[in-house]
Amino acid sequence: MSGIAGRASRPRRRGASALPLALTGLAVAAVALLVLPLVGLFLRTPWSRLAALLAEDRVHQALRLSLVSSLAALALCTVLGVPLAWVLARRQFPGKRLLRALCLLPMVLPPVVGGVALLVAFGRRGFVGQPVEQLTGITLPFTTAGVVLAEAFVALPFLVVTVEAGLRAMDRRYEDAAATLGASRATTFRRVTLPLIGPSLAAGMALCWARALGEFGATITFAGNRAGRTQTMPLAVYLELERDLGVALLLSLVLLFASVAVLVTVRAGSFTSP
Amino acid sequence: MRLPAFRSVCAAVALTVAGCGGGASAPEPPPAGRATGDTLSGSLAVLAASSLTDAFSEIGDAFRRARPGVELTFDFGPSSGLAAQVLEGAPADVLAAASLAPVTPLVEAGLVESEPQFFAGNLLEIAVEPGNPLGIRALGDLARDDVILVLAAGEVPAGRYADEALARAGVDVSPSSREADVRAVLSKVELGEADAGIVYHTDVVAAGDAVDGVEIPAEDNVVARYPIAALAGSANPATAAAFVDFVLSAPGQRILRAHGFAAP
Question: Taking the complete model, does pTM exceed 0.80, yes or no?
């Protein structure tokens, strides 16, 4: 780093050497912004009540529902999101930029608005939900499937954007070589493209899962709040804030530890080099 | 700008002096509020429960007409959240809550100027789809298998009251969802996702044609009582007392009735 800076023929060397210092300072500020609230969370948490809380049935229910629904949402997002990322990265067609913008919209939409949008589309009176109910008798609001759908709606763009970036950054000559050697397009995608975008896919899946796990607004709006069926951990935390701050803090930390544990496990498994 | 500020300082000093002279006879702020009469001015920040949004906006308009010198602002939110803001030191002059429970800690901490006074009541009602297609007539119908019922969560007052009313009526229900607040219950019924929900009478009034209301008989019903109090941290105690007075006065009460509130 310093070698590159030294070679640069800028007249103001002092400024150039001050840059890393400024960057470090800003990085420290970033760490403070991210970590201080967590420190506050740890300091205010009534740890002595943790054991009693962990024995409660409703906590198990919420934690289990959070893990099951977020993993189901991740599976749905992966199955749908990787093909969408591939289309956005590799295909040329009119209106592609508009399509990409539409697909990424849930990232900037307030999740509660997303929940209302899901209701008016897939709800019992929604323009999709109503005919579906008449044909099949299936409704999504107030069901675990509704939770998965709400989480997938909010989390899918994170996977798409990351995988698309990976596809764009990848060296396409490997794909060309595979095709030259007689591999079909499907084989090339499966044996060459997917392994090459492995790190982007893993990062996209981690982001997507984390977003699904923490999802609150769209879930409570679309799927409602029912213990054991649609009450995920973030919903339990939010409602507990109305009753007992201490319990709410403990619940948030339980969720935090569960998610860190999963991410560390996945990371340890997916990266061979440090 | 300087003159009104000077005036409000004068008013504050006058009230402090009056308070010192009055000694223990403090629970009568109304005369002090009236004594300053038309000279009331300065800013007044009122924190009020979400369910008061429409009624208090109208009361605010009437108050501004009566006291043109006062710059009145409202902050509507959940009662517990507003009370927490006051506890954390947020600058505000008056708090109007949907139940006494969140105000009690403020009284204990000495953060209210005078004892909270009840100024309105609100009855529970069953909100159903317009035309009541499922023929819901009483709390007992909410236990029917063909009725999708939504209640507020047990953590918020509306949910607690609903549980109480159902218990009184001896009805055992399995709601499809316990929503985070009473307005979310209303919107689930408005959107047609739920067939019925228990909300406040004022919510049914505010929803207009979007829902119909089914009354709950008095013996099962629960009255939510709304307290109001001037806050001790107010920079403008005379104006704060005048606003509390106005809410309790006949014109203020008329506006509350028009929005569906009951007598306290």
Answer: no
